[in-house]
Design a protein that fits this description.
Blueprint (H helix, E strand, L loop, with lengths): L2 H20 L3 H18 L2 H17 L3 H16 L1 H4 L5 H21 L4 H17 L7 H13 L3 H14 L9 H14 L3 H13 L5 H17 L3 H15 L4 H17 L3 H18 L2 H17 L3 H22 L3 H23 L3 H14 L4 H13 L3 H14 L4 H13 L3 H14 L4 H13 L3 H14 L4 H13 L3 H14 L4 H13 L3 H14 L4 H13 L3 H14 L4 H13 L3 H14 L4 H13 L3 H14 L4 H13 L3 H14 L4 H13 L3 H14 L4 H13 L3 H14 L4 H13 L3 H14 L4 H13 L3 H14 L4 H17 L1
Helix pairs in contact: 1-2, 1-3, 2-3, 3-4, 3-6, 4-6, 6-7, 6-8, 7-8, 8-9, 8-10, 9-10, 10-11, 10-12, 11-12, 12-13, 12-14, 13-14, 14-15, 14-16, 15-16, 16-17, 16-18, 17-18, 18-20, 19-20, 20-21, 20-22, 21-22, 22-23, 22-24, 23-24, 24-25, 24-26, 25-26, 26-27, 26-28, 27-28, 28-29, 28-30, ...
C-alpha cells in the first residue's frame, strides 16, 4: 500500500472513532482508534501516529479508562520531546494533538490519584513552555482550566476560581482543548465551591441553552444543577436534573453513568426514598467497579455506606468501610491532604454510634464496656472497638484506661483522627493539658475542619488560662459549625474569664437560643451576670436553671453566692445548704456557706464549715484564709496566723491572705511582720484600699504618723467614702498635733458612720487637746452611749471634766475607767489629781 493510501486509511479510522464517540458507541470508537494507531505505526508517520494516539486517548477517556488514556498521552508527549520526531510534528493537526495530550495527561493523572497532584502543575508548566515555543500562546485556555481543576482538588478554592476565570476569558473557539460548554461547567463549579452559587447557576444553564454543547458537557451541567437543587431543598428539580443526567450518561458508559447516578442517589436520600437510593447506589458501585480507579470507587463506596446507614444496615456499611478508607488514603496521599481519610473516620464513628449509642445515651457505660470487650475478644485488631471502649472508660472517669485503649486504637490505625481527638479529650479530663494539646493539634492538622477537635482544644486552652488562644479556637469551630451551642457557650465562658462580660453574655444568649433547655448555658449566663454585678439578672437565670433541673447543685451554689453578694445571707445559706445536700463533697459550696455564716457573725458555724471544706478541697488556700480571718475576729490570733501562713504558702500571689495575716500581726502588736505583709500585699494589689488602711493603722501604732497619713490618703483616693480610713487619718493628724485637720477628718468619718464610737472618741479627744472642752464632753458622752463601758472614752471625758473644773464628774469617770482597765495608769494618776482638787475646792 502506498503511503498516500495508508494515510487515507488512518484518517478514515480516526474519523470513524470520532463519529462513534459522539454517538456514544464507545466500543466501536476504541476499535477504530486502535486500528488507526496500528496503521500509523506500520506507515512510520509521526504526524499520523500522534493523531491516531490522540483519537485512542479520547475513546479510552470517554469510556472511563483513565489509565489507558494516560498511557497514550505519555506516548504523544514523548514523541513531542524526542529530537528524532519533534521536528516532524509541526503540522497543525499534530500540534493540536500534543497540546491536548498535555492537558489530558494532567486530567487523567489527577483522576487516577496515583501521582502527587502538585507534581502535575509541573506538567502544565511544560505545556506553557511548549505552547510559547511553538507559537501557540492562544491555546492556553485548556491549560488554565486544568490548573484550576488541580487547585480545586487541593481545596484551594480562591486559586481555583482565579484560574477558571482566566481560562474562561482566554477561551478561543477552534483552539484545541475544551469546548465553550466545558469552560462554562468548570467556571460554574469553581464559583459553587467558592460559595457563589448564584453566580454559578447561569453558567450551567448556558450549557443547556447551547445547541452545540456535547452530550458529556450537558450531562455535567445537569449534575451540577441537581447538586445545587439538593443544597437548596428543591428536591423535585434535583430529581429532574438527575434523571436527565442519567439519560445522557447511558450513551457514554460506566464512567459517565456512575457520576450521574451519584447525584440521583443524593436526591433520593434527601427525599427519604431510601429504597430508591439503595438501588441507585448499587448501580453506581457496580459501574465504578467495572471502570476501577480510586476516585470512582471512593465516591461510589461513600454513597453506598451512607445509604446503608440511613437504612440501618450497619453490617453492609461496616464491610464496605475498609475499602473506602483504602481509597481515601490513596487519594489524600496524592493531594497531601487528609480530608477524605477524615470523612471515612466520621463514617466509622457513625457506624459505632448506631451500634453503641443507646447504651451511652442511657448512661449504661458498663454495659457498653462489656460489649466492646466482646468485640475485642473476637477481633483483637479491631481499632474501632478499642477506640469506643476508650470513650466508655472516659465517660466512666477511668481516664488512664481510656487513654490506654485509645492509644492502642491509634497504633492499629494511625490515621484515625477521631481516636486521636478522643485521646486528647481524655487527657484533658485527666488534667494532662499539655498531652491533650499535642493530640488535638495532631487531629486538627489531619482535618483542619474538624470542628469538635478544634473546640476541645479551645476548652483545653481555657482551662490553662490561655484565653486568647481558647477564643481563637472556639471562633474557628463556630465558623465551621454555627449551630454548636456548647462551643458558643464555651467562648462566652472564656470571654467572661477575661472580664469581657458583655461579649460573654452575648455568646451565652446566642447559645441559649439554640439550646434553651440547656441548664449549663442558662446557669453560666447567670454566673456571668453575677461577675458583672448584675445581680437581679443573675438570680433570674440561676432560678431558671434550677427550674430546668431542681437538683443542679452548681446552679444552687451560684445563686447562693449571688444572694451573698447582695448581703441576703439567710437566703444564701438556704441555697448553699440545698446544694450541699445534693453534693456534700463540694468544698467550694461548703466554704461559701461558711462565708455567709461569718458575715452574720455566726462564727462557730463558720469555723465548722471552713474546717470541713478544707478537708474536701484539693487547694484550700482561700478557705484557710477565711477561717484565719474568723479566728482573728474571735481573738484566736495564733490560730489565725497559722491558717493564714498556710494560705500564703499555697497561694503566694494572693494579696488578700497576706493583708489578713498582716492585720492579725498588727493586732498582736508585731508591727514589723505586719508591715512586711502589707507591703507584699499592696505590691500585688495596689488598688486594695483596705490593705492601705491596715498598713496605715500599723504605721500609726508604730508612731510613724506621717507614713500613716500617706496610706490613709491613698485608701481614700481609692475609696472616697471609706469612713474607717477617714477616721484613722483624723486620729493620725491628732497624734501629729494637727487638731484642726484632725477634727475635719473625724467629722467627715462620723458623717459617713454615725455609729462609730471610736471616731466620736477620737474627735472628743481632739476637741480636748484643742481646748474645746464642752464639745469634747459632748462627743465623748456620745461615744460612751454607743459603747457602754468604753474605758478610753471615760478617761478622756474625765480629763475634759477636770479641765472644766468639774472635779467630781472627773473623779467618777476616771474611777470607772480604771475599774474597767486597771492597767491604765494615766487614768489612775489623773483621778488622784481630780480627787485632790475636789477636796481642795470642795
Amino acid at each position: 500500500m502506498s503511503p498516500a493510501a495508508g494515510a487515507s486509511v488512518v484518517n478514515l479510522f480516526i474519523d470513524e472513532a470520532a463519529e462513534a464517540g459522539r454517538e456514544g458507541q464507545l466500543d466501536r470508537a476504541q476499535t477504530a482508534a486502535e486500528r488507526a494507531v496500528q496503521a500509523a505505526e506500520q506507515l512510520g508517520d509521526p504526524v499520523l501516529l500522534v493523531r491516531a494516539l490522540s483519537a485512542e486517548r479520547l475513546a479510552l477517556g470517554q469510556a472511563g479508562d483513565n489509565g489507558g488514556a494516560l498511557v497514550r498521552c505519555t506516548r504523544i508527549l514523548a514523541m513531542a520531546e524526542d529530537p528524532a520526531t519533534a521536528g516532524q510534528l509541526g503540522q497543525p493537526s499534530a500540534a493540536r494533538a500534543i497540546a491536548i495530550a498535555y492537558m489530558d495527561f494532567a486530567d487523567c493523572a489527577r483522576l487516577l490519584a496515583r501521582t502527587p497532584v502538585t507534581d502535575l502543575l509541573g506538567v502544565l508548566d511544560s505545556a506553557d513552555r511548549w505552547l510559547a515555543a511553538t507559537g501557540h500562546p492562544d491555546w492556553r485556555a485548556g491549560v488554565l482550566l486544568q490548573r484550576g481543576s488541580i487547585y480545586s482538588s487541593l481545596g484551594d478554592t480562591d486559586r481555583a476560581l482565579s484560574y477558571q476565570r482566566e481560562a474562561f476569558a482566554a477561551y478561543s473557539p477552534g483552539a484545541p482543548g475544551f469546548s465553550c460548554a466545558s469552560h462554562h461547567n468548570s467556571l460554574g463549579e469553581a464559583l459553587d465551591d467558592a460559595g457563589l452559587p448564584e453566580e454559578a447557576a447561569p453558567h450551567f444553564q448556558a450549557v443547556l441553552d447551547d445547541p452545540s454543547a456535547g452530550v458529556l458537557d450537558r450531562m455535567n451541567a445537569r449534575i451540577h444543577l441537581a447538586d445545587r437543587a439538593c443544597d437548596t431543598g428543591q428536591l423535585a428539580d434535583a430529581a429532574r436534573h438527575g434523571a436527565a443526567a442519567v439519560e445522557l450518561a447511558e450513551i457514554f458508559g460506566d464512567d459517565a453513568l456512575r457520576r450521574a447516578l451519584r447525584v440521583v442517589a443524593r436526591a433520593q436520600r434527601a427525599a427519604d426514598d431510601l429504597d430508591g437510593a439503595w438501588a441507585t447506589a448499587t448501580r453506581q458501585l457496580e459501574a465504578a467497579r467495572r471502570i476501577g480507579g480510586s476516585l470512582a470507587l471512593h465516591s461510589a463506596l461513600g454513597m453506598m455506606i451512607d445509604v446503608a446507614l440511613d437504612r440501618g444496615d450497619v453490617d453492609t456499611a461496616g464491610k464496605l468501610l475498609p475499602e473506602l478508607r483504602e481509597h481515601a488514603v490513596t487519594i489524600d496521599a496524592s493531594r497531601a491532604k487528609a480530608n477524605l481519610t477524615a470523612a471515612a473516620g466520621r463514617r466509622r464513628r457513625r457506624i459505632a454510634g448506631l451500634v453503641w449509642q443507646p447504651s451511652w445515651d442511657a448512661g449504661q457505660y458498663g454495659e457498653s464496656l462489656a460489649e466492646f470487650n466482646g468485640a475485642i475478644e473476637l477481633d483483637p485488631a479491631a481499632a474501632w472497638a478499642f477506640a469506643s471502649r476508650g470513650k466508655a472508660c472516659r465517660l466512666m472517669r477511668r481516664y488512664d484506661e481510656g487513654v490506654a485503649d485509645l492509644t492502642r486504637a491509634i497504633e492499629l490505625d494511625p490515621g484515625d483522627i477521631w481516636s486521636i481527638a478522643q485521646r486528647g479529650h481524655t487527657q484533658r479530663m485527666a488534667g494532662r493539658h499539655d498531652d491533650a494539646i499535642t493530640d488535638l493539634n495532631r487531629a486538627v492538622e489531619l482535618d483542619p475542619r474538624y470542628a469538635w477537635a478544634i473546640s476541645q482544644r479551645g476548652e483545653t486552652y481555657r482551662l490553662m488560662a490561655r484565653y486568647d488562644e481558647a477564643i481563637t479556637d472556639f471562633t474557628r469551630a463556630i465558623d465551621i459549625d454555627p449551630t454548636d451551642s456548647w462551643t458558643i457557650g464555651s467562648r462566652g465562658q472564656a470571654r467572661g474569664q477575661q472580664g469581657r462580660y458583655a461579649e460573654a453574655i452575648t455568646d451565652l444568649t446566642r447559645a441559649m437560643e439554640i439550646s434553651p433547655q440547656d441548664r449549663w448555658m442558662v446557669a453560666q449566663r447567670g454566673y456571668t451576670h453575677r461577675l458583672a454585678a448584675q445581680y437581679d439578672a443573675a438570680l433570674a437565670d440561676l432560678t431558671r436553671a434550677i427550674e430546668i433541673d431542681p437538683r443542679y447543685a452548681w446552679a444552687l451554689a451560684q445563686r447562693g453566692e449571688t444572694y451573698q453578694m447582695m448581703k441576703r445571707y439567710d437566703e444564701a445559706i438556704t441555697d448553699f445548704t440545698r446544694a450541699m445536700e445534693i453534693d456534700p463533697d463540694d468544698g467550694w459550696t461548703v466554704g461559701s456557706r461558711g462565708q455567709a455564716y461569718a458575715r452574720l457573725a455566726r462564727r462557730d458555724e463558720a469555723v465548722a464549715d471552713f474546717t470541713r471544706a478544707i478537708g474536701l478541697s484539693s487547694n484550700p488556700g482561700w478557705i484557710l484564709g477565711e477561717r484565719g480571718r474568723v479566728y482573728r475576729q474571735q481573738g484566736r490570733y495564733d490560730d489565725a496566723v497559722a491558717d493564714l501562713t498556710r494560705a500564703v504558702d499555697l497561694s503566694p500571689e494572693a494579696a488578700w491572705n497576706l493583708s489578713q495575716r498582716g492585720e492579725t500581726y498588727r493586732l498582736l502588736g508585731n508591727y514589723i511582720h505586719a508591715l512586711a505583709d502589707f507591703d507584699r500585699a499592696i505590691t500585688l494589689d495596689p488598688s486594695d484600699s483596705w490593705a492601705h488602711c491596715c498598713r496605715g493603722a500599723a504605721y500609726r501604732a508604730a508612731k510613724r504618723y506621717g507614713e500613716a497619713v500617706g496610706d490613709f490618703s491613698t485608701a481614700l483616693r481609692l475609696n472616697p467614702g471609706y469612713a474607717w480610713a477617714l477616721a484613722e487619718r483624723g486620729e493620725s493628724y491628732r497624734l501629729l498635733g494637727q487638731h484642726t485637720v484632725a477634727i475635719a477628718d473625724l467629722t467627715g468619718a462620723i458623717g459617713l458612720d454615725p455609729a462609730d464610737s471610736w471616731a466620736w472618741c477620737c474627735r472628743g479627744t481632739a476637741y480636748r487637746q484643742a481646748k474645746r472642752y464642752t464639745e469634747a464632753v459632748a462627743d465623748l458622752t456620745t461615744a460612751i452611749g454607743l459603747k457602754p463601758g468604753y474605758a478610753w472614752a471615760l478617761a478622756q471625758r474625765g480629763e475634759a471634766h477636770r479641765l472644766l473644773g468639774r472635779f467630781d464628774e472627773a473623779v467618777q469617770d476616771f474611777s470607772e475607767a480604771v475599774r474597767l482597765d486597771p492597767s491604765n495608769t494615766w487614768a489612775a494618776t489623773q483621778c488622784d489629781r481630780a480627787r485632790h482638787r475636789s477636796r481642795r475646792y470642795g
